Amino acid sequence: MKVRIAGGGLAGAEAAYALLKRGAEVEMFEMRPEKNTPAHKTAGLAELVCSNSLKSDIPDTAGGTLKNEMRAFDSVVLKAAEKTKVPCGGALGVDRALFSEEIERILRAFPRFSLVRREITKIEDGSPLIIATGPLTSESMSRALLALTGEQGLSFYDAAAPIVTAESVDYDHAFFASRYGKGDSDYLNAPMSKEEYLAFYEALTSAECAKQEVGGAYFDGCMPIEIMAKGGENCLRFGPLRPVGLKHPVTGEKYYAVLQLRKENAAGDLFNLVGFQTSLTFPEQRRVFALIPALKNAEFVRYGVMHRNTFVNAPKILNCDFRVRKSKCVWIAGQLSGVEGYMESAMSGMIAGLSVAAYLAGKELPPLPENTIMGALSRYVSTENGAFQPMNANFGILPPPEKRIRDKALRKAYYAERSAKEIKAYASSFEQALKE
After folding, report:
1. CATH class held by domain 160-307
2. Per-domain residue ranges of the chain
3. Which run of H or E residues covers position 155?
């Protein structure tokens, strides 16, 4: 039986790979370039829109733990990321273009994979369908989803940070270093004195923003910097402009505020302004960000943009394997399902793909262990608990240790070790069950 996947993003790619590896035939539908979105720039599969960082790959962090869990199922996103990674400190950063190309190359290598460049506008509950159309789901698919679920969708705004050329940065006012000197010096730091910061802050809080639709809420993980700044004069200094742990490697000088820039591509000729998601107008971005000494002559190859994101009321709609409760064989994955973040979206696609593989074998996907990030997140999106909001990977959603561990570092290490043990056993058991 052929499985259809609507959407060629991270979730769609992960779902397709999970199925193809287990012998299924997959037909992926991607509407780009026939029909584009306000945020995408290419027609490539798994295009990374907001940032080129897949976040932490350190084992005893929530992000690193999730990645290790997904490696137990041979994640295609992580496979492609390892081949196209760029220096990013403790995070896993990739060259966006090469990453997208590698994802498509891997999927096309399967003879049972086909890619159709058109939009799916109807949901037919006959053969397996995974809907992974993303936070910018088209109006046609949104209407189809509402008809299927009978629930009103939710929405929030998401923003992307600007990218500047490396050669346009003033290196007399910047230095390479990682926070607290940990790891390689993968970040370029643009420091500010107190006077420079206050001038920047004043300009930022009074700058003109682009007009947006009414009625959305901001997700904390992608809060526009100008909105964040309204929390007070020092709010940015405890957020994206945090100076702690960053001093000049030669002079030892400490600073009042520091913007970090991260390599955007393997060539290292582009830098992403870390944490500078924004909805300022393009002229205002040039004016305000030029007040940071290192960026006084910055050349922008992409300005910060803002787009509207949509997700379903997952706890009322989805099971923990991301299958629609009212449907026999429709699954919803990715940010549309109520997870937030690149790897979290990919994770949901992986689980949906595994669930469909089990369905094709006449079986049910057992719930993932609650002591894993994958299990905890899938339970979060499928369990009603007050007003629903998207969720990132974090240790706070895991059950606490059986015995209290006061030391924070030891507690994180415990979570990571417990997760690794349980996901390995689950993955082995699942694969064996499929063969029986």
Report:
1. mainly beta
2. 2-153+312-435, 160-307
3. strand 154-160
